[in-house]
Amino acid sequence: MAKRPIEAGDQAADNRANQPSLTLHVPEPTYRPGDPVDFAHLEIPDAGNQARPDEQCEAKETLPLCYDLVRVLGDDNKAYGPWDPKLDPEILRTMLGHFAMVRAFDERMFRGQRQGKTSFYMKCTGEEATSISAAMALASDDMIFPSYRQQGILIQRGYPLVDMINQIYSNKGDKLKGRQLPIMYSSRKHSFFSISGNLATQTPQAVGWAMASAIKGDTRIAATWVGEGSTAEGDFHSACTFAAVYNAPVILNVVNNQWAISSFSGFAGAERTTFAARALGYGIAGIRVDGNDPLAVYAAEQWAANRARANGGPTLIEHFTYRAEGHSTSDDPSGYRSAQERDEWPLGDPVTRLKNHLIALGEWDEDRQAAMDLACAEEVKVATKQAEQNGILGHGLHHPFRTMFEDVFEELPWHLKEQSEQAIRERETKFPEGRPGT
Ligand SMILES: Cc1ncc(C[n+]2csc(CCOP(=O)(O)OP(=O)(O)O)c2C)c(N)n1
Ligand SMILES: [Mg+2]
């Protein structure tokens, strides 16, 4: 066998004796339970200091916005700078009303889960602006591809509370017939796509829908919401590639609430760059926005919507925010993060900020706020009582068991037919007396 010639790399290998061993970096959150919290390292720019490029600019012109933070509301609760959307106070009050409603709804549904009326619930506390203010900047028939924390959009679009609660209780009034996990709503009428438990699947679907809208020569655009943790999924990257290649009329909203259940954002790459900056590598416009500033969120979404509707292409918006409560009713964040984080979060609370802005404008006061909160709680209570007539978890008032095989295929394929017959037979053997709902 011929002798292998010496390669330059082999000689280099001989000289490596003095080099350090290779190591990996494993991200670790800064604060664990019991740690004092200091967010002083976060760069929070002054409100009004960010330039607003032309909506039809080249994607690369948004580079500064990808590392900055678009902010409109100052510490004095007044609006500043070129991103101020200059909304009529009436619109701001409507926005505050949606905030109050989603908060009242979240509170009651959370309690309902603790009382055993449903198996599962997810709040969006602290993130209300990222969905409600953003959706208000879209047309009401633009297509929404949500994740599971955008209940605010359904409320903003006027979906009946009682239908939401029926779905949460999986009762006989549930329009989805108990086939989805509680809170995974969908409504064609409200242009609100089915929520999927498989993270990030909604992102390529939104891009595909936007491409179809363009192919048809329509004027509706698509907007999707995805958590920062979920951007680590391959689907998100396929979505970005397709969106960029075909200049799809789509808005990719990345909600960076710092946590993905118990994994901090470092595991999705937050220690290396911003989520907004990822847009640039694909040739997509990017904006990083203060997600707790309702005016800034509205303005960013409006910029992206105008861009998409005028065939300027896709935009990726990173909403920099904080998940103030647990991931879901199945979670207990005191086990993995400092309880102090919520209070120390430097961008405050979106509801309080909008309320204080309206008060600063002389368009609102604390008494009206208290009355609004009370009215929302009452409306949710009435809807809850109404939904409870249709049944709650464990009371058997759900859609009949056998119906779970219906509606998916026009004609049930033979193997599902076999499965359904077997399932029904087994159930009859197990419960010969019959059970409600069988
Ligand atoms: C493909 C897939 N992987 C993992 C999960 C389990 N899971 C559900 S929610 C979640 C965290 C997602 O965090 P993030 O995307 O930041 O959204 P957030 O909950 O913060 O809104 C995980 C890991 C899942 N549902 N689907
Ligand atoms: Mg998250």
Describe this structure in a few short sentences.
The protein is of the alpha/beta class. The protein is built from 14 helices and seven strands. Its cofactor is thiamine diphosphate.
Overall tally of structural domains = 2
Radius of gyration: 25 Å
* CATH class annotation of the largest domain: Alpha Beta
* Strand neighbour order, sheet with most strands: 1-2-3-7-6
**At the third CATH level, what is the topology name of the largest domain?**
Rossmann fold
Described by strand count, sense and barrel closure, the largest sheet is: 5 strands, parallel
Please indicate the percent range of residues in DSSP E strands (runs of 2 or more). 5-15%
Query: Structural class per helix/strand content?
Result: alpha/beta
CATH superfamily of the largest domain: Thiamin diphosphate (ThDP)-binding fold, Pyr/PP domains
Give the overall shape, derived from the CA principal axes: globular
Helix content: 25-40%
Q: Which whole number gives the mean pLDDT?
A: 95
Report on this model:
- The chain is of the alpha/beta class and 438 residues long.
- The protein has two domains: 59-392, Thiamin diphosphate (ThDP)-binding fold, Pyr/PP domains (Rossmann fold, 3-Layer(aba) Sandwich); 400-430.
- It contains 14 helices and seven strands.
- A five-stranded parallel beta sheet has the order 1-2-3-7-6, sandwiched between helices.
- Helix 10 links the parallel strand 6 (285-290) and strand 7 (315-320).
- The radius of gyration is 25 Å and the shape is globular.
- 41% of the residues are buried.
- The mean pLDDT is 95.
- The structure holds thiamine diphosphate and magnesium ion (MG).
- The site of thiamine diphosphate (TPP) has 15 residues, from strand 4.
- Residues 20-59 form the 2-oxoisovalerate dehydrogenase E1 alpha subunit N-terminal domain.
